[in-house]
């Protein structure tokens, strides 16, 4: 599905606007998470994201 989207220029523009600042939430990863939330009909985007802290607990 992601390959068929025509928003690459928008994503590149957003990444360029961010520059070399903090990248805690990368533009491309957040865009993909948003698309997944829509596809999987999640009410909250956070339900798809794992925090590094929760990953450390599971390890």
TrEMBL record:
Q: Out of the domains of life, which is the source?
A: Bacteria
The species this protein was found in? Thiorhodococcus mannitoliphagus
The protein's name: Uncharacterized protein
């Amino acid at each position: 599905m992601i390959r068929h989207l025509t928003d690459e220029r928008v994503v590149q523009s957003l990444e360029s606007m961010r520059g070399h600042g903090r990248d805690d939430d990368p533009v491309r990863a957040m865009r993909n998470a948003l698309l997944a939330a829509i596809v999987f009909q999640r009410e909250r985007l956070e339900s798809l994201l794992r925090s590094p802290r929760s990953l450390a607990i599971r390890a």
